Each structure stands twice: as C-alpha cells, then as structure tokens.
Amino acid sequence: MANFFSDNKDLQYHLQHPMMRKIVELKERGFAEADKYDYAPQNFEDAMDSFRKVLEIAGGVCGDVIAPNAEGVDHEGPRVVNDHVEYASGTVQNMKAIVDAGLSGLTLPRRFGGLNFPLVTFVMANEMVARADASFENIWGLQDCAETLNEFASEEIKEKFLTWVCEGATCAMDLTEPDAGSDLGAVMLKATWSEEKQTWLLNGVKRFITNGDGEVSLVLARTEEGTTDARGLSMLVYDKRDGGVKVRRIENKLGIKGSPTCELVFTDAPAQLVGDRKMGLIKYVMSLMNAARLGIGAQSVGLCEAAYREALKYAHERAQFGKPIVKFAAISEMLSNMKAKLQGVRALLYETTRFVEVYKQYTHISHERSLEAEERQEMKFYTRLADGFTPLVKLFASEYANQLAYDSIQIHGGSGFMKDYACERLYRDARIMNIYEGTSQLQVVAAINAVTKGTYMEQIARYEEGEYVDAVKPVVAKLVELRKKFEAMIERVETIDKEHAGYKEFHARRLVETAGHIIIPFLLARQAADVEEYAQSAKIYAKLAAGKVEEAYSYIFASEPEDVELFKAVESEE
Predict the structure, then answer these.
(1) Given CA atoms 451, 456, 458, 464 in this order, what sign does their dihedral have?
(2) Cβ distance 271 to 236 under 8 Å?
(3) pLDDT tens across 68-84, in order?
(4) What is the pTM of this model?
(5) Is CB count within 10 Å lower at the N or C end of the chain?
(6) Maximum CA pair distance of the chain?
C-alpha cells in the first residue's frame, strides 16, 4: 500500500526547510535531554532522522489502515450507546493502529511520555491523516488540546492528563452552546465550586462538540456569578472517567460522518481549573483557536491532496473520443490549477506553522527563565506574523479544500456524483472546513488588522528582497506590480473609512484575500530555488492571483461609500 509520507515529495521538502534548525534547537533547549532519554536526539541531524522515521510510520498507518477504512467509517458512523459514543468499527481499528505505532503525544514533553517533536511534524501527520480520512483527523488531531494544558495548566494537571494523552487518550474542546456559537462570550454553562467535594462542578449543555465524548475535555464555563460576558468565563479540564456528562445525541451531518459531533449534558460533572479564573476566553480559548486554525489548515490541505490525486488518477484512466481525458486542454488546465493551489496553500500552511512554532517555543522558554532582549524581540516578531498568518491559512486552505473537491467531482463527470468514487465523500467532508473553528467570514475579521497594521505588507517586502532563480523572476516582477495595487487599495479604503465608517469592513475580504494571493506565489517562487517543479506552480498561481487582485482592485476603485448601504437592504427583510 501507499505510504502517505514517502509518496509526497512536497511534504519532504517542507520538512527540510532551513528554519528547522532553529526550531529544533529551541524545542530541544540545546539537546539538554540527550543523556536523559535514550530516544532523545543527540544533535540536529539525529533529530531530523527521527522525524523522518516517525513520519514514515505515520504515513504507513495512513496508507495501510486509515485510508482503506474511510468508506466503511463514512457509511457506519458512530452511535450513542448508554449515553456515550461508540465509534465505527473502522475508527476503533484506526485508533489502535495509531496508538500501537506510538503516534500519541507527538509534541508533548518526554517527561510525560511524549516525543517532544516540533509542531511542524504534528501538522504534517495531521495532513496525512486528513488525506486518508478527514473525519478521523478530527478525532486524532484534537490531541493538540493537550498543548494548551502544557502551556497553562499546573504541574499536577499536566502529570495526570498529558501522560494519559501520550498513552492514547482522546480529547475534545467543549466550547459551543445552543445559544453561543461563534459568540463564545455568551457561554452560560455553569461551573460552581463545591466545598464539600473540593472540586468544580459543571452544569449545562454544550452543542456541536467535535469528538464530544473524548476522554479529556477542555471546557469553557462561567465561574463568576452574575456575569454575562467574557470576563466571567474560565477554562476547566474534565476527565470522562469521573462521570457527570451524557451524550444526548450525535448530529446527523452532511460530511465528516466518522467524527461524532455531540450535544452534551453536564450534571454536576467534576472538573479542575486550568490557569487563572476569568481568563478562559480572553487567553486560553485564543490559544486553543489558534491551534485549531492550524489544525483545520492541515486537514484542508490533506483533503486538497486527496482530491487532486483522485482527479489526476481518473483523468489518466478515463478515455473519451479515443484518448485519456487528461489530454484535453480543459481538463489539463483544471488539474494544473488544482496542483498550483494545493502546493501554494501547503506552502502557506508550513510558513505559518514555522511562525507559530518559534513564538510558542519562546513562550515555553519564558516560563523557565527570563528571555534575553534579542529573544523578546524575536518572540514579538514571530507572534505578530503568527497572528496575521493563522487566520489567512485557515481561510485559504478551507476555501481551496472546497474548490478542489468540487473540481475533482467535475473531472469525474457523472461518476463523481456516485458513491462508488471517493471524490463524493471528499466533497461532503470539505464543506464544513470553511465553517467550523471560525467561518471564512470570521477569519477575515481576525485577519483585517494584519492588513491595516502593515503585517502582511512588511512580510511581502521581505519576500521581495529575496533571491530568486531566473525562471521565476518574471513572476516576482508581476507580484511587485500587484503589491503596488494592494497598497493603493488599502490607502483608498482607509481614507474613505475615516469619513464613512463601515467601508473598510465592507471591503475587508477583498483586502485579506489580496494579501494571500500575493503571499502564496511568493512562497512558491522562493521554493523554486530548490525544486524546479515549483516554478511551474508559481507561474500558474501568479496568473490566477493577477486575475483575483485585478478584480478586487477594480471593485474597490469603482465602489463608493454609499454602496455599503445598498447591501444593507436585506437587513429589513424577513
């Protein structure tokens, strides 16, 4: 069977990025544990060798177990038995294979039984799992909740829960409620301190909880009596073994059917406080959501990979008018565009992951010792980039997952509409990706400050200063032209918004997407210095980007302040 790491040269390329040396040195603290654990690396080369071996193991599990089980899991799905979730039989097999392969606690410290791998490797594993079965990625990938515990919880909580996660415990983040979707400040699930039991007791309902019957759950709850806003919310951790939570139902969904999306009822469920009271939404959920955005980015890229491969395979096999349909220009153009989008958004995913990785490591180091002045500056620099790029990658990756799944069905023609082909499942699975963990519209809200405060423009300037091979120099020249248009668009929007509030909000998506359309081909052009193949995708993506930027530019410069009011007419309709 296929190995989803060995057969993907793109993943192998990103694993070798020059920043990996810095990331590994930060993560390993100068290889301080080399003599303490026999599986700890002695040096950078040793670490990289370990990453490759473990990713190959993960790739084998994905190709040999998870992917073959995907259709059966989609058909069978989970169910509620005695108030708890019972996974599909294929999901149970997947979990056993993952745990047996030692792929739990990938990024967690060795003292809890983890591998202490960098986030980059976890994102790669997530991507491979999603390529095999996006619904299973929702279960396995949620172990990233443990990173929030690792960053903010007490040593006692870490010892208990992180050790369990490293042994294979499943996780969930219980945030959403029937009356509090994206508006998490409206969460009302109650946490009350019990003097008698010396613990917090949770009461209320949570809804749309992915893998809601997970063994370790991070729960956003209201600890402060009389409050109705974010300042009354705290983060708590719940142990399924303690009881007090019942699964009322599993939602009947369009896609990702192997992943149980639950409505939960909490009745005096015991839980422990994570970090400080009142900081649940303000601090800890923000950390969770940033990780979740990367997770959905990886899930989306994995699905893009699967959709592209299904389309390419079918285009070579399906003959019409005496030749394979891949020979027809209309099909080959679609496939070329799919490949450029796939490689482009993957480049954005790993660029973002590296930014997040560096600032996260400095955060952990700051808990161990005071940072040097240069380290503080570097942490601030990468935090700013991570804050800007994280919503951008979630936006682009999830939208492209939908586009590539759509195109894959189109290339399959009528066959793609049938359940005989995997692209039908991919299409259903993709639809949630630009909705959950913050819709595309909310990603724009999160990203627009990076436009107006110059984060994207400053990074684009850094890309412009780079060295490029001759093959992509025309691409870079075109991107410089697009950047100038981008500057003009920002200036016009901000100037008008000063007099007509709401104008920037109206054009926010056009501005954010323009940033992405310039950044992505720059990343591909940069990669062309090492791998010639990326030059082709850089050229193709740059053409697509030029069309998108020109469209946004024309729309903004043809738009007047009163246009905002035109689109408010629907507000009065019922």
Answers:
(1) negative
(2) yes
(3) 999 999 999 999 999 99
(4) 0.97
(5) C
(6) 80
